[in-house]
Amino acid sequence: MTSNPWEIGRPADQCAATGRAIEPGDEFMAALVEREDGAFERIDFAMDAWPDVERPPQLFAFWRAVRAAPNAKNQPLLDASTIGDLFDQLAEATEPRRVAFRYVLALVLVRKRKLELLKQRAASGEDPPLLLVRFRGTDKELPPIEVIDPEMDDETIIAISEQIQQIMALDD
Asked: Strand, helix or coil at 76?
């Protein structure tokens, strides 16, 4: 594993639960687990094994993927739908790394024009600063999505953003 704690690995060629090969074209579940040293470890599971897998307490996020053919052009790991699901999974996050990841994910989605930035709200009393966003094309009558701004330094935001963009399959 690399020294960058935000790096997310490429797909494995076998199921972590059964040891069975994950063949090109097979759907599988990718799980991102936070190790004790703070780095992430990606663990892949065959779809039929996933329902029986005991979820580790350090599970950060998970998503559905399809194993590419070995000769296929390198593709980003996540498509727009999966990124949206990951963003939604982290909605109730309170742990600082998850809050930070969701915040930077929102910034990337705004930059890629998948989310619309409606407003930034400053901290007020006990309430943290927020971004108010909406997925483009959704009902404007729905309440905006609140994203906590963890007030990270620029270096951390850039590091997380670069890793997110490497795994995203979004049109520019």
From this structure: coil
Do 160 and 101 meet the contact criterion of CB atoms below 8 Å apart?
yes
Distance in angstroms (rounded) separating the CA atoms of residues 82 and 98: 17
The Cα 104–Cα 87 span in angstroms is 10
Overall residue count recorded for the chain in this entry:
172
Residues 6-15 as b/e (b if ≥16 CB within 10 A, e otherwise) read bbbbeebeeb
Q: Is the pLDDT of residue 106 over 80?
A: yes
Residue 64: pLDDT over 80: yes
Q: Which among 158, 151, 142, 154 has a CA at the least distance from the CA of 6?
A: 158
Residue range 27-37, pLDDT digits in tens: 999 888 888 87
Question: What does pTM read for this prediction?
Answer: 0.62
Pairing, β 168-169 against β 78-79: parallel
